[in-house]
Amino acid sequence: MSNGLLLSLVFLLPAAGILSIAFLPHSAKAKANFVFVLLIAVITSIPAVKGITGSAVDIFIGNNAVFGNISIHIDALSSWFMLIINLTCINGAFYGIGYMKEYDEQKANLSMHWVLFLLFQSSMLWVCMVQNGLAFLIVWELMSISSFLLVIFEHRNKTTLQAGLNYLVQMHIGVLFLSASFIWVYLAEGSFEFSAIGKFFSANPNLWLFFLFFTGFGIKAGFIPLHSWLPQAHPAAPSHISGVMSGVIVKLGIYGILRIVFFLKQDYTVIGEIIIALSVLTGLYGILNAAVHRDFKKMLAYCTIENIGIIGIGIGIGLMGMGIGNSVLIILGFTGALLHVLNHSLFKSLLFFSAGSVYQQTHTRDMEKLGGLIHRMPQTAIFFLIGGMAIGGLPPFNGFVSEFLLYNAVLLGIKSIGITYITLMIFSLAGLALIGGISMLTFTKGFGTIFLGSPRTHLHQQPGEVTWLMRLPQYFILTIMLSIGLFPQFYYSVVSEIVGKFIPVAPAGSSVVPGALLTSITSIGRFALLFIVVFIGIYLLRNALARRRPVSTGLTWGCGYPAPTPRMQYTGKSFSKSLGKLLNFIILEKNKYKEITASEIFPAERTHSSHYNDFFAAKIFDGMVDKLLFFMNYFKFIQNGKIQLYILYGALFILLIFIGTIFNFI
User: Fold this and answer.
1) Structural domain contains residue 158
2) Is residue 79 part of a domain?
3) Mean pLDDT score of the chain
4) Residue range(s) defining the domain that contains residue 650
5) Residue 653 lies in a domain
6) Does any domain span residue 638?
7) What's the Rg (C-alpha) of the chain?
8) Model-level pTM greater than 0.85?
9) How many domains does the structure of the chain reveal?
10) Residue 124 pLDDT > 90, yes or no?
11) What angle do CA 175, 177, 183 make, to 5 degrees?
């Protein structure tokens, strides 16, 4: 395919899709959206594969006085993220065909939804392609606005609209930081091209400009304290949009950070230290909040923050390796981070899709109202269970592979990085271990409360397994997750080649990493395959033996209670109450309940309700907004509704302009 044809299709296909969806019959819109998503994915994946396996693809668009040179540049880093975007959007579009059938009566709203989905996918791809600061900000804005409109699909719901507006405001704060960064580079180098960033870093201190960029991209990624849009926007959006947003849109913040990291010329160690410390805190904060929330989509949103922290640890370790000239740390850190970007996009979209299936059948996100769904939705239960095991880093699934690389990077850092930074490495190791442990608690709580036990409340409709349209993309995701667990050496070699193209001290990842570690990576796949074979063998043997004898079913042992009720089951709150009380200074619980005192031998009947507030939103941002509103109240007299005063304001303004002109102030 010629570059000219590629350039034409990159922009014409989305336009053709948008026009087609607008004029097609209502019943065909969702399918047409999937077809165009698939076509865009195929067309853009061709140069992406070339960018990874060969040389970068460059297409010159034009030159003008405002933007300067505008071109499409698809290198290995762009290619990796483009492939992840395409994979996740294909699954999301297909899942959405079945998921959005519940909203068939909203014809105009659905038509706009599918148009926006195409624009959303295309704008994310364009973000990875353009290499001009002004053009980048434009496509970044398109991505933010289209995703905002997708989030507020149920805009008649006040909570949804509030979550969407909060998301939009925070994205524009991020754009403000990014704009300031690109303007700073332009004033210093006279160009908006990305290559000017490298020139700036060569001649100036790197720290301050990097953290200006990091703040802008970090808001999109969800690093604390810039994360507060995530727990609101993800639950509010339709589940296929939640899966795509968690799977890829937050990763474009990581893409931007990595793009700037690879331009750095100095200050590697200082920046690496700060990123590692912030990332460990981000991971811990995210998983602690996930552990206590009972809204299962909000729980998954906080898990996204946790995994952004894990990716950030890898980036920080890679930077530390660059600072001390340790090629193995560079390869393991950046490779672990990039591979975890792919892994998280897979298991998190799987989890959001399975959560969406539960929501579609039960019309509630409160796990305390559910229970026993494994009998009604067995396949969805398996998807959620596997996603929970993968996100917890358990073999034979993909999460284990990237976390194995990061653990090895940290352990190698402890042994080789020197006494100066050993405390930071031990802190990272402890953080990763704690994150993994609490993650298992979180998904034990989630799976146990939603799918096991007995129904806790009577639902208005009897839940059942979702349609094949919603299950098929989950099987596809599961297949790719298993392929990473079974063939980790292939994915490792691909990602290490990407890193080697950007870091001069590590031209070939496989030649600098110890042979024992490479052997261990290969062994992961062998043992994963052995585990799967043994598991299937035991399952088949059990079924064969069970067929030969009668099987009776009965109630589970009632723990000494002759008439157990669903109210006596463990709840989501029960799982996490001890953790919440232990860390109540950071996990803020707001409850309405009078505690039972020791003197109450026969306590009276009580009611109890509770919810958890985000620490940064409740303690910092809400306080800042309240103080700003309090200050602005002093100026309410200006906007008083009197037309005479408004005319006077205009006359005073004209007078000031006149005086300024006379005295040459203007």
Assistant:
1) no
2) no
3) 86
4) 613-666
5) yes
6) yes
7) 27
8) yes
9) 1
10) yes
11) 100
